[in-house]
Specification:
With 314 residues, the protein is an alpha/beta fold. It has helices spanning 3-20, 41-51, 69-82, 99-106, 117-129, 153-162, 177-187, 211-229, 239-244, 249-260, 267-281, 295-309, and strands spanning 24-27, 56-63, 87-92, 145-150, 166-168, 199-207, 263-265, 285-289. The model has no long low-confidence stretch (mean pLDDT 93).
Length: 314
């Protein structure tokens, strides 16, 4: 797709998710990625919040090292003013891109370490509380829901110590899910935001009428992830292109491992997979990531997921 087509498909999905009763719709921040047209979360959040009526819209996430905290505070203060009680601010500590692009974003040549992440985060929070010596307008007094995101136990520990909700990227770091959630819960301290730990996991879920069809629709995403790991990121292939793609034995092993970490199948298969994942992680929320080539197939996947889970009150 072109960026225009992709963003149109995302708008259609957000509207359908709003109608179905999903609770949140989040957008990522990635730079220099040929297959991802989501480099400006705040802009997209404004658009999708205006295109929907009830669902919360947020960032999954804003990569704090790429920005001055004051800028993020002003952006999300504005969003909260436009759409009160509907904005989530998910914060990540990785740049979401390669080092050269990250330096261009930061307009500087300083090392791109994460050591100053807690200080940046505390500064950001101070603008919303209004106890910074710099007045952030309209951030002061704004109440976007603040989340910390992570794919390891670093942000998990920071989220626990600050008493913030924590969202974990199970969809690309499944082996670290349980250790990170345990670290968060062990380090958790009650705060004005939360009295008890609160967790979300983001999982890749592909639902279709049959297990075989769901796997066919999931293969393009697995191959796109393979190309990313090889350092050659590209567009999401069609299912036909994915089926025709020649693979080495190592490639096949990588793809099968990737598929094995996802929840793929018919509604019954997916229902069982979701239940098992939530039982193992004791997560409070599940964020569903479904990278399908066709917009209609993707919307259908969410509709089937909704039908499978809601009657069972999962």
């Amino acid at each position: 797709m072109t960026a225009t087509e992709a963003l149109g498909a995302s708008t259609a999905l957000a509207r359908r998710a709003d109608e179905l009763g999903f609770q949140r719709y989040w957008l990522a921040e990635h730079h220099g990625m040929p297959g991802i047209a989501s480099s400006s979360p705040a802009v997209l959040i404004a658009h999708l919040a205006a295109a929907t009526s009830r669902i919360r819209v947020g960032s999954g996430g804003v990569m704090l090292p790429n920005h001055q905290p004051l800028v993020i505070a002003e952006q999300f203060g504005t969003l909260d003013a436009l759409h009160p009680d509907r904005i989530d601010l998910g914060i990540g500590r990785a740049p979401g891109t390669d080092q050269r692009t990250a330096r261009a974003l930061r307009r500087g040549t300083a090392p791109l370490g994460a050591d100053d992440f807690p200080d940046q985060l505390v500064e950001l929070i101070s603008y919303f509380r209004g106890d910074s010596p710099v007045l952030a307008v309209p951030a002061k007094g704004a109440r976007p829901a603040l989340w910390l995101l992570g794919s390891s136990d670093y942000s998990a520990q920071v989220a626990g110590m600050l008493g913030l909700p924590f969202a974990f990227a199970h969809h690309f770091s499944a082996q670290n899910t349980l250790p990170a959630l345990a670290a968060y819960r062990e380090r958790f301290r009650p705060s004005a935001v939360l009295q008890e730990p609160y967790t979300m996991i983001a999982a890749a879920v592909f639902t279709a009428d049959t297990d075989a069809e769901a796997r066919r629709l999931a293969m393009p995403s697995a191959l796109q992830f393979l190309q990313l790991r090889k350092g050659t990121p590209g567009l999401l292939p069609s299912p036909e292109e994915a089926a025709a793609q020649p693979l080495t034995e190592l490639d096949e092993a990588f793809v099968e491992d990737r598929i094995g970490q996802q929840i793929i199948g018919s509604p019954d298969t997916v229902r069982d997979g979701v239940r098992d994942l939530l039982d193992r992680t004791a997560a409070d929320e599940l964020m569903v990531v479904t990278a399908m080539h066709g917009g209609a197939d993707r919307i259908r996947s969410y509709e089937l997921l909704h039908e499978a889970l809601v009657p069972a009150s999962v």
